[in-house]
């Protein structure tokens, strides 16, 4: 018999491997979750015709068809002079996150530049910190996770492109200038 967990259903067939072994073939697998094959006690016969087995269960088989969903959490400062800015990427629906710097693309305008790094978030296995470091220049920065670049433990890939909020790097100091006075001479105390 099959034992299910989640929305998973399947059909099975027994195939003879040899005189002493059978293979369970699963087919028409639907839904998500886990399943295992249970063998009831006394279902195996010895060569002498005696029911000898105590029963048992196979290991659980996990079926995951849901693509991970990615969202950016609040990145903090959005206009900066330099330094670094971190974004936290939250991944829903993943048992494991496989994301590296090679899975990201830095989009820049003007002369803005940065280095990228990715690190786990301590205590949050479904989050990754994406750091824009060594911010230079003047312009905007965004980080893109392209579709198909983040995967879960089952190999399902994210379906959509995800962009961070825009970070503006502004290293140009404001320039103050004074114009000509409105009048070169005055009788009062305002010009």
Task: Describe the protein.
The chain has 191 residues and is mainly beta. The chain is 0% helix and 48% strand. The protein has no helices and 15 strands. The strands form four sheets. Strands 8, 10, 13, 14 and 15 form a five-stranded mixed sheet that branches. Strands 1, 4, 5 and 6 form a four-stranded antiparallel sheet that branches. The radius of gyration is 31 Å and the shape is rod-shaped. The model has no long low-confidence stretch (mean pLDDT 85).
Distinctive features:
191 residues; mainly beta
Unreliable spans: none
Class by SSE composition: mainly beta
Proportion of residues in helical segments: under 10%
Largest pleated sheet: 5 strands, mixed
Calculate the mean pLDDT score and round it. Answer: 85
Distance between the termini: 96 Å
Strand content: over 45%
Q: Which value, in Å, is the CA radius of gyration?
A: 31 Å
The counted number of beta strands is 15
Summarize the topology.
Elements (H helix, E strand, L loop, with lengths): L1 E5 L2 E10 L2 E10 L2 E7 L16 E2 L3 E3 L5 E4 L6 E2 L2 E10 L11 E5 L4 E9 L2 E13 L2 E7 L16 E2 L3 E3 L22
Parallel strand pairs: 8-15
Antiparallel strand pairs: 1-4, 2-3, 4-5, 4-6, 7-9, 9-12, 10-13, 11-12, 13-14, 13-15
Would you summarize the structure shown here?
This protein has 191 residues and is mainly beta. The protein contains no helices and 15 strands. The protein starts with a strand and ends in a 22-residue tail after the last strand.
